């Protein structure tokens, strides 16, 4: 777990996500969730976990309000989740 969190922290820094920026997480309950969560904290980034059972309009409101700089999406969620650029102009990156 620690190695995975360290990789996430390094990836966030490499991607230009600065401390105190927000990382939204649309991540299922699997090992990646705590790795992303603790990796964000290690990088000084604020993790914003999202419920994976919400409707698209609810995500729209939450993501706009969160000011997330990056969005992490679990692979199964990515099948039904469109790229966030039309919904969240400030969220330029998603993984």
When the domains are counted, the total is 1
SSE ordering: HEHEHEHE
Proportion of strand residues: 15-25%
Could you give the distance between the termini? Answer: 19 Å
In helices, the fraction of residues equals 40-55%
Number of strand elements: 4
Q: pLDDT average, as an integer?
A: 84
Largest beta sheet: what is the strand line-up?
2-1-3-4
CATH topology label: Rossmann fold
Q: Please tally the helical runs, counting DSSP H or I stretches of 4 or more residues.
A: 4
CATH class: Alpha Beta
Apparent shape: globular
Tell me about the largest β-sheet: 4 strands, parallel
**What's the gyration radius in Å?**
12 Å
**CATH arch. level architecture:** 3-Layer(aba) Sandwich
Class based on secondary structure composition and strand pairing: alpha/beta
Low-confidence stretches: 84-92
Domain AMP-dependent synthetase/ligase: 4-73
Protein name: AMP-binding protein
Pfam families: AMP-binding (PF00501)
Organism: Sulfitobacter porphyrae
Describe the structure in your own words.
This protein is an alpha/beta fold. The protein has a single domain (2-14, 21-90), classed as Rossmann fold. Helix content is 41%, strand content 18%. It contains four helices and four strands, in the order H-E-H-E-H-E-H-E. It has a four-stranded parallel beta sheet, sandwiched between helices. Helix 2 links the parallel strand 1 (22-26) and strand 2. The longest helix is centred in the N-terminal third of the chain and has 13 residues, at 2-14. The two termini are 19 Å apart. Residues 84-92 have low confidence and may be disordered.
